[in-house]
Amino acid sequence: MSDASDPTGDRLPGREEEIRDIVERKGGVAPVRDEDGRYTVVGAASRETFANWLTPVGEHFVCHRNLVPEIDADSWTVSVAGPDGDLTLSMEDIREEFPTVAVAHTMECAGNNRGQHVPETSSVQWGCDAAGTAFWVGTPLSSVLRRVGVEEAGSRWLTAIGGDSPDDEAFARSVPLGKALDDCLLAYGMNGDPLPEEHGYPVRVVVPGWYGVNSVKWVEELRVTDGMVREGSLDRPGTHAYWQQEAYRIHPEGVTPEENDSVDDPDTWAQLESEAVDHPYTFDQNVMSIIGSPSGEESVTPRGDTVEVLGVAWAGDDRPTRVEISTDQGETWDDASLFGPDYDCAWRLFRYTWRPNPGEYTLYSRATDERGRTQPPTISDPEDWETALDDGEYPWNEGGYAANAYEPNGVDVVVSE
Questions:
Q1: Which end of the chain lies in a sparser environment, N or C, as judged by fewer CB atoms within 10 Å?
Q2: What is the CATH number of domain 67-122+133-273?
Q3: Cα 354 to chain center, whole Å?
């Protein structure tokens, strides 16, 4: 995002203290560079996180702008506005009056891989550490929305508003109502435990397969609307469209995107390829893969004459169908095997049996999704925005969003005798 236009751009006191507390409590995460101190951000501390299908809570990344609010779960309510009127739900109502489901979802920050942009963009300089897969437990949004008369989506949207914002600012995000009715949750559990406070306790929206910004934490209000949230559309004081209409949009440097009521296709890559939206919104995740083992943190000794390469691949609402491995910096490629749990909107494990000689190597992984879209090797130069996709590169963008190039995520490995 553009720091100059961020309405919440002042440094928040208490940020470093909150990050230290999360790192010490979780154990498997590390702080991520954010020189302006505007976000609470920690990412997976080791690549080994990405050699496993389920991400422990202690290794799952965290990202939010406002400090964790002080919560009294007994008094927390979620208001729901629909065509048949308004509904106010307590946490007991949400847990007891509706079905309970568990959904596997790979959560990825829209700014994951931002730190790979050259020149550097603004905000948090993530590597590939802002992704994790968990089981999210909660109430289907479809069940809640039926209570207020929502049976069909049409062209409408669902707007969620977080309860972590100051009075003059709202963190509001809109998703197509069809997606909300299909598989979204009001989640209050994570990996079998109550939702941790830094992940939105007592309740958050979870939008499977979509970038994490759409899964509003500490949710306190849901509204069925004719279009996406726009400035002035919520009938409340202050600003409330920034996080939908300006931030988390993909655009070249120096551009302020225009507001839109709707988009025809929420698939982020499809928006990049088409001319229907000038500056794409970060909704559905782009195809992506990460090698988790070898991690590059220590030398590798083959067992017999082989080394097992393990990692994860995902593609948002779509499925990863192929993963390839290169052990010679992209000169040649071999197919890895997908294995393990196979859930919609969650990553797949991959493995590759490698027979290396002693020496130094750089390993790459690249995934292809069911639509035939493959990770590009690099991120373009800023001036190549117009031609990046045609040239086989991911477009450098001012916010550093939705990048999925494979070369920056290569892992350097030393193979010993």
A1: C
A2: 3.90.420.10
A3: 31
